[in-house]
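User: Can you fold this complex?
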Amino acid sequence: MNIIVCIKQVPSSNEVRLDPVTKTIIRDGSQSVINPFDAFALEEAVRLKERLGGTVSVLSMGIPAAEALLRDAMSRGADRALLLSDRAFAGADTLATSYALSVGVRKLGGFRLIFCGKMAIDGDTAQIGPELAEHLGIPHVTNVYEIVEASESEVLCCRNMDGLRQLICVSTPAVLTIAKDINQPRMPSITGVRSAMTAPLEVMDTVAAGVERAWCGLDGSPTQVLSVEVPKRSSECIFLSGDMHEQVSALKKLIREEL
Amino acid sequence: MTEAMIAFGKQYSEYLHDESRTVGNADSISFPRCEDDVRALLKDLSRRGTPITVQGGRTGLAAAAVPFGGHIMNMSRMNSVTGCRIDENSRFCFSLQPGVTLSEFRKMLEKQNFCTEGWDEASLEAYRAFLCAPKQFFTPDPTETSATIGGMVACNASGARSFLYGATRRHISGIRMLLADSRGIVLKRGQVFSRGRKLSIPIETGGVLSVSLPDYKMPDTKNASGYFVSDDMDALDLLIGSDGTLGVITQIDAALLPMPKIIWGVSCFFASENDAVAFVMQVRHTIPGLAALEFFDGDALKLLRTQKEQNLAFSKLLDIPKEAESCIFTELHCDDYEIAENRLFDLGEVLKQNGGSEDNTWVARTEADRVQMQFLRHAIPESANMLIDRRKQTCPVVRKLGTDMSVPDALLPEVMRLYRRDLSENRLQSAIWGHIGNNHLHVNILPRDENEFYRGKALYARWAAQISKMGGAVSAEHGVGKLKANLLTLMYGQRSVMQMEELKLCFDSKKLLGIGNIFAAQGGDGI
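Assistant: Here's the predicted assembly.
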């Protein structure tokens, strides 16, 4: 069972910095981590490989610093990696990103399954998996929290539908987006870190990948972001004085003002 | 009784105990907010000859904060940061009131966000330099981050990273303290030294406190047993680790170090305990930058496996390798990725030379992995406590008997054999974990009934005597407090303990502070 796992580098904290002109997230590699949902997807793929044989490839579109993320994925059991990296990919919305990833998938080739995290914690769109499947013309199942059975030709899996469990048998090749807590991602071993250093990692720009440039990056993104703001969080502590009745009245007034 | 002093009532019952689960009693309690409050309280209490127990976060394991009658002075509301300076070793120092908790201090450092209201210009200038400097950290890392800085200084707390950075003492650059009679002492590191064992400490309002230091020699191991004394010592070091017996600390200058750019955790699993010990004996002298070297024995790992199976809160623990009978956790600190990688691989080589396998390791290089590893390390003592709590329901007398002893480097294999032989001969259930890099293990006897509890206590006292003969310490990090006061005589002898009492009298002539700490109270049964 050859599996491709799409992974994304996301900011490690809530302190997201936005480009004031493009309104997109500034991704300079500092303090970046693997999207947590993708970590579950990677672990599930490695577990399937250990059960059924085959390979796990990791694919990402990002800045050159994402190479470290891919090496880390290989230290956790992936066998090879492909990074799509070119300034022309920058500013992509989900459509342009999923298009680029579909080209990367074709470059890697020979897969039966593609795993994506259910969503990325920076954009929160959950669109990449389904759009990737559409670009590739294959079925997809979202929000998978259990893989019951898997073979080269089909996968029986459970997806979560707002508390309802849906059991789906999907024929391969297919895209599965993986929910949190489907497993407990492993930590790499020293052996894993050693082997990841020399494991094959290819970096492709738009030319090497053979993408249609007009479909990539900002140019290929129909989504126009007009304005984005980081939510301002504020907290204030107000002490109410007086006797109990006075405090209750003051509290009622405050609640009314807030509502 | 002053206005700030509150008659003791049921609503304050939580202040009668600490994490040692020893329960005391008190007549009154106060929550001072500034040094003037402390001074006023001390004047009143001293005049009336009332015993005083000073409390911080009550996270201690030796009952030092548990009152044996008298007054509780709880410092938790003195929790401001009052200034910043650059110390004699070019380190940034923040002046903290004693009630600042470790977690609050860490948060301020992490976010580089301190409330500077009321700071003088010199402090503000040092603070501006701090904001521009590379990220800094305060290295002492006791497990309980709700510990207050005052409590940490009082018992010279350490934690896993003290293997590289040393205990709290090394990171304290100044202290303000009020004596029991309310006179003040201000000490900065490097300013007041003893001549041999004679020490003269200037009193803030004039005059000098003349002290004859005890003549015992401290063990060449990690040690938090009794007063820190040595020839020509810095006076500041005497106050640190004095278990609340010499004065009330009102301000602490905590010194920082630059945060290493790379912090990796590595857990190594072994099929044999002897292999794990051999690994430690070799690795601690061969790999630079190891900040921590921690041990978990097979019984501790078994507790974890059981918890994971039976308790939902622990279900997210990673599966411990099946064949693992012990685990060594290490933390690599350095500033260069390539160097870190090379050290990791060197560690792997030492592992292989000592019966381990690089496959049976976990390497935590990301925050998520570090959190997972910390969860596992903290889950072990929690599992032991939960087990004992269950047993307490049917046999209230039992409690966990956790040792805190250390031995010199060369004697680590010997002390491990001693523990194993005695636990097996006494048929006692146990779990061993702790700071093996410093030959400082917490052997936790987990009594199943009253009989085992008393057998465990007897064994504990026997170990204290044997470890003292080996040149070790009866308390390496928790402090002596009340629970280990009896053991201090085993370690240093009666004469030295009497010398310590004479020293205390120089600071606290009415013997009001920390009654029962370091010096066994009459009727106290220790451990």
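DSSP finds seven helices and eleven strands in chain A. The domain at 3-215 of chain A is CATH 3.40.50.620 (Rossmann fold).
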